[in-house]
Amino acid sequence: MLSFSYTKSRSSRFLPFHFPPFLPSFFHSVSLPLPLNPPKSSHLRLLHLPLRIRSIDAAQPYDYESQLKSRHLKSQSLKIAIIGFGNFGQFLAKTLSRQGHTLLTYSRTNYSDVAKKLGVTFYSNPHDLCESHPEVLILCTSILSTEKVLKSFPFQRLKRSTLFVDVLSVKEFAKNILLKYLPAEFDILCTHPMFGPESGKTSWLGLPFVYDKVRIGNEEERMNRYAAGSQFVTHTMGRVLEKFGLESSPINTKGYETLLDLVENTAGDSFELYYGLFMYNQNAMEQLERLDMAFEAIKRNCLGSCIKFIGGSCLGLQMD
């Protein structure tokens, strides 16, 4: 917060007050006449009257910077279910919830009060939990009850490719039993956190964590994603720059030369080749949508910041 003030003086002249130069330029056109010696009326009897600027960066409806930041944080969060809400399950829920993830919990014992205190959701029925479609499911059951839980678990209500994570101490047993009962569409990650509620109550940083990627995705699907993320995006950007009309100039930088090479190497190929990359890769449409969202986000961020700092008069542009 910035604060400006005047104090008592022998002179009764008015001194023009100007905002300091580090404030945005549109403040500089404003000057306030501040009396060096204010009249001693009932309304102006203060000998020290501070002028306070409460905020010079208040969030506005067009503040796309904060909106994009919030959207980014949400995109990084996961919906995580914990099966078995005993001491270790509560320990995991507390930490993961603090990291911004959405936590769903289930246990045969009623821990609804504990869940409420931790700010997580508790289900007394596994079917209801699965209907919420968690992306990650952590098994925190005891070793003796794990097989019984898996036998009766409603896998059919979960999304395919749900990641199952176990935290049992005996890895060989956990690996075999998960491979036995879980459908092939589910991913499996066997883990052994070498810490617990006491040793990890303040932070997990630097604590040992053992894991085994038993079954993570489909190799063919993973290769398609790699192709969509590299070859297809590369060809798409090359063709976009060709349509943009990118041309060489006498002052090309190294980065600009790289873009020119990209256009030459991609736009020179036939459209049938590019169309084949699009048509026969199921991840290509997702990549196009992400590119479109990225361009739109950059555009809105620039225009929003322009309006934010120059009061809506930047180049005559207006945001809806």
Can you tell me about this structure?
- With 320 residues, the protein is of the alpha/beta class.
- The protein has two domains: 152 residues, Rossmann fold (3-Layer(aba) Sandwich), CATH 3.40.50.720; 93 residues, no CATH class.
- It contains ten helices and eleven strands.
- The strands form three sheets. A seven-stranded mixed β-sheet has the order 7-6-5-8-9-10-11, sandwiched between helices. A two-stranded antiparallel ribbon has the order 1-4.
- α7 packs across α8.
- The longest helix is centred in the C-terminal third of the chain and has 27 residues.
Q: What is the percent of helical residues? A: 40-55%
Strand content: 15-25%
Query: Mean of residue pLDDT?
Result: 79
Number of DSSP-assigned strands: 11
Structural class by helix and strand composition:
alpha/beta
Using only CA atoms, what is the Rg? Answer: 30 Å
Overall outline: elongated
Query: Helical element count?
Result: 10
End-to-end span in angstroms? 31 Å
* CATH top level label of the largest domain: Alpha Beta
The succession of helices and strands, N to C, reads EEEEHEHEHEHEHEHEEHHHH
Query: How are the strands ordered across the major sheet?
Result: 7-6-5-8-9-10-11
Which stretches are low in confidence, meaning pLDDT under 50 for 5 or more residues running? 1-20, 22-34
Provide the fold topology.
Elements: E1 2-4, E2 14-18, E3 31-35, E4 51-53, H1 64-76, E5 79-83, H2 87-98, E6 102-106, H3 112-118, E7 121-123, H4 126-131, E8 136-139, H5 143-151, E9 163-166, H6 171-181, E10 187-193, E11 209-215, H7 219-244, H8 254-267, H9 271-279, H10 284-310
Helix pairs in contact: 5-6, 7-8
